[in-house]
Design a protein that fits this description.
Distance between the termini of chain B: 46 Å
Radius of gyration of chain B: 21 Å
Largest sheet of chain B: 2 strands, parallel
Largest sheet of chain A: 9 strands, mixed
Structural class of chain B: mainly alpha
Number of helices of chain B: 16
Oligomer: heterodimer
Strand content of chain B: under 5%
Number of strands of chain A: 15
CATH superfamily of chain B: Amino acid/polyamine transporter I
CATH architecture of chain B: Up-down Bundle
Largest interface: A-B, 32 and 31 residues
């Protein structure tokens, strides 16, 4: 009986304490209402003479289209804080979908612009990153009809590589890993405005955090296949007997085998793709089977040529390594890498690279 | 069916596992001694081996006096001076919980930036932990069973969804910067192993196959650490070295269909582990104080301990710099090793000496 009474008292004290804590929690702060929040969905950053210009797309609960705000500041967060002065609302960065950086930011060096997206507690490292061909402001202020290009659309463009087979997808965490990790060069998709429409037009490759060059869609495909991220896309070849043939890539991959011989590295790359014929200029389906060997050879030849040009451009001319060859050497030949990592850019200009392409046309459509 | 006042070996090591989970959740490059967190997989293996050895003093004490806990044995060995040992252990439990709680508060302030004041969350946690301590060991052990299911489901869901985020290029070779980080990681795990201090109190209150369960727990803990570290490194890559709470950042990347940004699972598992650790340690503080001044003093000590923790963690331990200075590895490691390993050895030697002396007197 005494024990039950004691237990009852303890339970009552616990209930009162819980009530007190809940009341304190609500009174001391509690939840911020959605209307008091600024739901930031897209951030564009341009370098200005005395700081940065930040263009922001803000989602409003009562509207389907984002609202554009632009602010200047010394740094990205300094500029974003000024948004609060205008609206009194508390910014919410955790739903941000895209970050678009202006070309000038890329040319100056991206590290101090993107530090906020990695360090700030609310910023998500999975946000998509893009480099604007011109300015981020151009992308964010562009209206297609009456509406701005929404951040969701831009984010979807970034993931279009699954279908078109050449758009790369770079998150903030990927960019920082490529920047900070040894033996890699960062890259991200390029956004351009063409005839009043925003589209992804290539891949920007960086030398450390500074913009170096832009890869064309065909070169970007090579980047995707060598980094084992190619899952779609079309290749067009011309055969004398069939005219233009479009082959759809079902799966693409590459095996990169670095080796060290006489203290010198070399790379053997074998690219394999499974494709199928999607269209030809000749509708004679029975003839398609006879086409296959020639088609496979033509496709392999085209892809090989494209691979060699891309490697020449990135490794030799720009001394960048977006494929992560250096990282793979670091993982597989660590001792050699430790001795030679400081000179890796020099090695890129002379490392022997052999490329083999095996194309399989699995069906005639 | 367990005897009254006793828990099963399974419950003991479930409790041990859950209280160790927070060790893994709060690892970062600063405390781990470098940015190559992958080397902590080797630290986990070293920790597994050391766990099997460093527990031996407590095990030998238990084997010699299976029904007596550490305080009772030290009372027998040292007489009234055994009270000092009780005070030392009470102080250690308060100290280590101050470390865990202050770490949690720093996380809530810096990573969550909660609108609710952090002290309110601490008070809520400590009220529940104190209640658990009042109810006693059996209640805490039973709760650990439920918590294990929740925590396991959460962690498994997280790890499965993160499987698609693993990238081969994110891994660095083991021991890339030498063995220093492996050593530092091992010392870090050892320093946070407050269970060395808890075990001598709980073994007499446990029934069942202890050796088997202890081995199973150790291997399970080691595997858990390794899987977590590999997932963190494979998902985050070099970015893991830049994060204050890399496991939290990793959880923020997890997604499966409509479920995205599963960092709430991380916070939930941490809170559950922290609750069990705090409740158990407050209970043990009450045992230490009861040994000295009686049962009522022991009950009061639970409240006093909880208040001290809240006040301490929200005043002089509210700053990251102070936490790093007070709870650096140079402080925690000696505290844990002295209290968890050295003291049981001293007590064991003293008890053996006392037994020999007693036998000689009886022979005469």
């Amino acid at each position: 009986m005494k024990g039950n009474k004691k237990r009852l008292i303890i339970t009552a004290v616990a209930v009162v304490a819980a009530f007190f804590i809940l009341a304190s929690a609500s009174a001391s702060g509690g939840q911020i209402q959605l209307d008091d929040r600024m739901l930031i969905q897209g951030i564009g950053i341009d370098q200005e003479e005395d700081g940065v210009l930040v263009s922001v797309h803000i989602s409003q609960p009562s509207q389907t289209q984002p609202v554009l705000e632009q602010v200047k500041g010394e740094t990205v967060l300094d500029a974003l804080d000024k948004l609060v002065q205008r609206s009194g609302k508390v910014p919410l960065y955790s739903h941000n979908l895209v970050v678009v950086l202006g070309k000038k930011c890329g040319e100056e060096g991206l590290e101090h612009y993107i530090d906020f997206f990695v360090r700030y507690y609310e910023a998500r490292p999975s946000v998509g990153m893009f480099l604007a061909e011109g300015t981020a402001e151009e992308i964010f202020t562009l209206k297609e009809g009456e509406e701005y290009v929404s951040p969701e659309e831009i984010a979807r463009m970034g993931q279009g590589g699954k279908t078109n087979g050449w758009t790369v997808y770079t998150r903030a965490i990927d960019f920082v890993n490529q920047l900070w990790g040894e033996g890699t060069s960062p890259y991200m998709p390029v956004l351009s405005v063409k005839e009043g429409v925003v589209e992804v037009t290539g891949t920007a490759v960086f030398h450390e955090d500074q913009y170096s060059t832009t890869l064309t869609p065909e070169e970007s495909r090579i980047l995707l296949v060598i980094t084992k991220r190619l899952t779609g896309g079309q290749i067009v070849v011309e055969l004398p007997e069939a005219g233009k043939v479009t082959a759809t890539i079902r799966q693409g991959s590459a095996k990169v085998s670095p080796s060290i011989k006489n203290q010198e590295p070399q790379l053997d790359i074998t690219i394999t793709c499974q494709t199928e014929i999607s269209s030809t200029e000749n509708m004679d389906l029975a003839a398609d089977e006879a086409l296959l060997p020639n088609l496979e050879q033509a496709l392999a030849s085209q892809l090989q040529s494209s691979a060699e040009e891309t490697l020449q451009k990135t490794l030799r001319e720009e001394q960048t390594d977006p494929f992560g060859f250096g990282r793979q050497i670091m993982q597989e030949h660590t001792a050699w890498w430790k001795e030679n990592r400081e000179n890796w850019e020099e090695w890129l200009t002379k490392i022997p690279v052999s490329v083999q392409v095996e194309m399989t046309v699995e069906s005639a459509g | 069916m367990n005897q009254i006042g006793k828990i099963s070996a399974g419950q003991l090591f479930t409790l041990a596992f859950l209280t160790r989970v927070i060790m893994m959740l709060t690892v970062d490059s600063r405390v781990a001694g470098g940015k190559n967190l992958q080397d902590l997989t080797l630290s986990a293996l070293c920790y597994l081996g050391l766990n099997l050895v460093l527990i031996l003093p407590a095990w030998f004490l238990h084997r010699r006096y299976p029904e007596l806990d550490l305080l009772e044995i030290s009372g027998y060995a040292f007489g009234k001076a055994g009270g000092l040992i009780a005070l030392l252990y009470a102080a250690y439990f308060l100290f280590i919980n101050g470390y865990f709680l202050s770490n949690f508060q720093l996380f809530m302030q810096n990573e969550i930036n909660t609108q609710v004041p952090v002290w309110v969350i601490s008070v809520a946690l400590l009220v529940v932990a104190a209640y658990g301590a009042f109810l006693g060991l059996e209640s805490i052990a039973r709760t650990s069973g439920f918590v294990l299911i929740l925590a396991a489901c959460g962690m498994i869901f997280l790890l499965v969804t993160l499987n698609q985020e693993l990238r081969a290029e994110n891994f660095t070779p083991l021991l890339y910067d030498g063995p220093g980080q492996t050593l530092q990681g091992t010392l870090l795990f050892l320093s946070r192993s407050s269970f060395y201090c808890v075990i001598p109190f709980l073994l007499p209150k446990t029934q069942g196959a202890l050796k088997c369960r202890y081995l199973f727990w150790n291997v399970g803990l080691c595997l858990f650490f390794i899987v977590m570290i590999v997932t963190v490194c494979g998902t985050l890559g070099p970015v893991a070295g830049l994060q204050n709470f890399p496991v939290y950042t990793m959880a923020a990347l997890a997604q499966s269909g409509p479920f995205q940004r599963l960092d709430a699972i991380y916070t939930g598992v941490w809170v559950m582990g922290l609750f069990l650790t705090t409740a158990l340690d407050l209970y043990l503080i009450s045992l230490c104080i009861s040994f000295l001044w009686g049962k009522i003093a022991g009950r009061v000590a639970i409240l006093a301990g909880a208040v001290l923790l809240v006040v301490g963690c929200n005043t002089f331990l509210a700053s990251g710099e102070v936490v790093a200075a007070v709870f650096g590895i140079q402080t925690i490691l000696p505290a844990t090793m002295i209290t968890g390993v050295l003291l049981p050895i001293i007590i064991l030697l003293a008890v053996r000496h006392k037994d020999k002396t007693t036998q000689k007197k009886e022979v005469r």
